[in-house]
């Protein structure tokens, strides 16, 4: 979404960048990055006032983002375009190498564009001119903060603030250092002091309100922002933010007018609609919910998000069917409308009508797996031969290789539901065997160690670090989704096209740690250095790993003792079956069920060792009985981390592929594989059979 804007900005194509940025903001009004790019485009166009308005809106959405505040400072301090301003500074320094303010401004520009090495070089020059100047300390502190060293930043900035307590730039940097250390009360004090210099600052008040909220005082945070509504009452993002804070404070009656105003201005903003639905739920005012949403739908009948909200306020299945039918009539070409009606009919017990809708979906969208599976499930209840014949006929007509693979996977599932587990297992195994060369090789587990380095003590308050991992078939992706939806700092980029290039990504790391060619301290330092480029500025992160090996404890025990390993776990035999039938987030090669079972028994054996010997702080999240229940899963994850669970009833987890214990239906065709897994299953607390 951002690439066209960034490309136009790089080429200096102001009009093109501005058009693309405005489209991005229109499509995603609550996205601070889109607003940030809009500010850059406006600046390139020469509209400095408009750029400042856009960056202020971004700060209201993400008040803790130090980069946005730095962008704002640059807009306030420099009237020209960035390149022109930098050129002017370079000319100033060329004429007078001792021009201290020019060096400071250049360092600020380097920080703003993320060139930390250049900022460091410039500020070292400035420090030779005025080593004790508070602005030098401010930039040195921000540099340390941007490099992930909050302790050093706080030390630099605290010392400098004792000498120059009134320096605004220093106070701002100190506030962000306190934030990085989660010293919220001190951060609040620092930023409140800045209001003396800029009492009308909307973005500063939004930041203070966010800090107050993070201290567990959402009502006070709402009160902090309320005066801004007099001046910026038409801003839907600000109205929504105040409404959300009121809602969090348990003041739904005060929240609803704010949210209603935000929805009137931005009727398709999902976040606003979700908050409104929650406010109506707390107020138990279904009549107002229906009337309000029906009025909005009269103006915007083609908004899928409004229809979803309208369905969400219905508590009776029959009423949900009526709304879903209206949605389908309003948007007959939208897949989601048909899916919603099929689900509503199923919930109301009208399975025949639900199957008819699913059949209609397959005609509109050939190859739709969910709808085909719903039709096939209905056929299986009446005639398993007809179900198999339907899948085989689809397969015979399919031309696209990817579609054929999907249908063959579905054929295996149909064999399973038809009571033919041997044919199902053979179908799935054949699919895996065909693509072994296109998959990741299975990482070779290391041998167990007799002795480990000492677990380092925790040094005061440290950031929260969770290393999330689950073997193939564990359904760890549901834990990841739960953490992400609850607001956790989940990083799933190890599974994407641009994974971090740190040692935790490389399969040879365990061997390198064991033979001494990789130092554990270096591994952790590399991992820490990569957090900021991954968008983690305060050290708090849930890092979802592709693989795990106990050899990593050679680095983690002495150098990252604050981390907690969270392992998603199910009965290992169910895990193998899930992997065989539906793959896994990490695209590991599965040459055969026996080879996969042998590898699973080794990696899960390491988890059993870790748990039995308590080798490292860890949590086992057992998903066997909670993976299909969003709220139960949220409670399990929250219990594991010792935090308050977030209601997840609207989470789109979907049904399980296999019920817990379904491996027993495959006891004969997969007997050899399951025999390899039985010992580790027992060690992990599962029955032998």
Features:
Rossmann fold, 689 residues, 5-stranded parallel sheet, Serine Threonine Protein Phosphatase 5, Tetratricopeptide repeat, mainly alpha, globular
How do the strands and helices of this protein lay out in sequence?
Elements: H1 3-11, H2 14-27, H3 32-45, H4 48-61, H5 66-77, H6 82-95, H7 100-112, H8 116-129, H9 134-146, H10 150-163, H11 168-180, H12 184-194, H13 202-214, H14 218-225, H15 228-232, H16 236-248, H17 252-265, H18 270-283, H19 286-299, H20 304-312, H21 317-330, H22 335-347, H23 351-364, H24 369-382, H25 384-397, H26 401-417, H27 421-434, E1 465-470, H28 476-485, E2 490-491, H29 509-515, H30 520-529, E3 541-544, H31 553-559, E4 563-569, H32 572-582, H33 593-613, E5 618-622, H34 630-641, H35 671-683
Parallel strand pairs: 1-3, 1-4, 2-3, 4-5
Helix pairs in contact: 1-2, 2-3, 3-4, 4-5, 4-13, 5-7, 6-7, 7-8, 7-9, 8-9, 9-10, 9-11, 10-11, 11-12, 12-13, 13-14, 14-16, 16-17, 16-18, 17-18, 18-20, 19-20, 20-21, 21-22, 22-23, 23-24, 24-25, 24-26, 25-26, 26-27, 28-34, 30-31, 32-33, 33-35
Gist?
Among the domains are: 1-62, Alpha Horseshoe (Serine Threonine Protein Phosphatase 5, Tetratricopeptide repeat), CATH 1.25.40; 465-683, 3-Layer(aba) Sandwich (Rossmann fold). Helix content is 63%, strand content 3%. It has 35 helices and five strands.
């Amino acid at each position: 979404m951002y690439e066209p804007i960034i490309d136009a900005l790089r080429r200096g194509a102001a009009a093109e960048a501005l058009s693309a940025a405005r489209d991005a903001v229109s499509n995603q009004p609550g996205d601070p990055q889109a607003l940030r790019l809009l500010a850059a485009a406006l600046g390139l166009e020469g509209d400095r006032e408009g750029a400042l308005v856009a960056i202020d809106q971004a700060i209201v959405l993400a008040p803790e983002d130090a980069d946005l505040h730095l962008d704002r400072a640059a807009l306030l301090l420099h009237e020209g375009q960035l390149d022109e301003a930098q050129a002017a500074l370079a000319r100033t320094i060329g004429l007078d190498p001792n021009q201290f303010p020019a060096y400071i401004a250049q360092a600020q520009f380097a920080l703003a564009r993320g060139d930390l090495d250049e900022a460091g070089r410039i500020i070292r020059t400035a420090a030779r001119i005025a080593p004790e100047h508070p602005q030098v300390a401010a930039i040195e502190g921000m540099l340390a903060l941007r490099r992930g060293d909050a302790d050093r930043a706080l030390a630099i900035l605290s010392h400098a603030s004792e000498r120059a307590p009134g320096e605004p730039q220093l106070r701002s940097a100190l506030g962000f250092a306190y934030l990085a250390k989660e010293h919220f009360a001190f951060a609040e004090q620092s930023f409140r002091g800045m209001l003396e210099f800029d009492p009308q600052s909307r973005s500063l008040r939004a930041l203070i309100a966010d800090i107050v909220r993070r201290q567990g005082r959402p009502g006070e945070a709402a009160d902090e922002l309320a005066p801004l509504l007099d001046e910026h009452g038409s801003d839907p993002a600000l109205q929504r933010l105040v409404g959300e804070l009121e809602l969090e404070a348990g003041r739904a009656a005060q929240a609803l007018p704010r949210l209603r105003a935000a929805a009137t201005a931005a009727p398709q903003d999902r976040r606003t609609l979700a908050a409104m639905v929650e406010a109506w739920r707390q107020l138990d005012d279904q009549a107002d919910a229906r009337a309000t949403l029906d009025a909005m739908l009269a103006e915007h009948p083609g908004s899928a998000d409004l229809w979803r909200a309208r369905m969400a306020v219905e508590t009776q299945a029959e009423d949900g069917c009526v709304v879903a039918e209206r949605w389908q009539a309003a948007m007959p070409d939208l897949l989601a409308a048909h899916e919603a009606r099929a689900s509503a009919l199923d919930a109301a017990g009208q399975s025949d009508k639900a199957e008819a809708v699913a059949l209609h979906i397959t005609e509109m969208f050939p190859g739709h797996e969910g709808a085909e599976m719903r039709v096939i499930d209905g056929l299986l209840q009446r005639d398993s031969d007809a179900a198999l014949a339907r899948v085989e006929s689809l397969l015979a007509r399919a031309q696209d290789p990817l579609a054929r693979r999907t249908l063959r996977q579905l054929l295996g599932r149909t064999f399973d539901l038809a009571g033919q587990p041997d044919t199902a297992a053979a179908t799935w195994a054949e699919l895996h065997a065909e693509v072994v060369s296109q998959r990741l090789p299975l990482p070779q587990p290391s041998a167990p160690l007799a002795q480990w380095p000492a677990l380092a003590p925790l040094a005061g308050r440290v950031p929260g670090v969770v290393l999330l991992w689950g073997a193939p078939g564990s359904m760890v992706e549901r834990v990841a989704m739960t953490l992400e939806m609850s607001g956790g700092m989940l990083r799933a980029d190890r599974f994407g096209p641009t994974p971090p290039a740190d040692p935790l990504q490389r399969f040879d790391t365990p061997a390198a740690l064991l033979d001494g060619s990789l130092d554990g301290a270096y591994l952790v330092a590399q991992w820490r250095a990569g957090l900021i480029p991954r968008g983690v500025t305060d050290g708090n992160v849930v890092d979802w790993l592709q693989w795990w090996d106990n050899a990593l404890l050679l680095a983690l025990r002495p150098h990252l003792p604050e981390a907690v390993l969270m392992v998603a776990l199910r009965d290992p035999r169910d895990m193998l079956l899930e992997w065989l039938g539906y793959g896994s987030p990490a695209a590991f090669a599965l040459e055969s069920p026996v080879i996969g079972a042998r590898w699973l028994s080794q990696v899960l054996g390491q988890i059993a060792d870790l748990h039995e010997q308590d080798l490292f702080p860890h949590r086992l999240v057992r998903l066997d009985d909670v993976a299909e229940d969003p709220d139960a899963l949220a409670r399990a994850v929250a219990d594991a981390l010792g935090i308050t669970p977030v209601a997840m009833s609207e989470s789109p987890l979907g049904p399980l592929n296999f019920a817990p214990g379904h491996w027993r239906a495959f006891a004969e065709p997969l007997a050899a594989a399951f025999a390899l897994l039985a010992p580790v299953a027992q060690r992990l607390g599962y029955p032998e059979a």
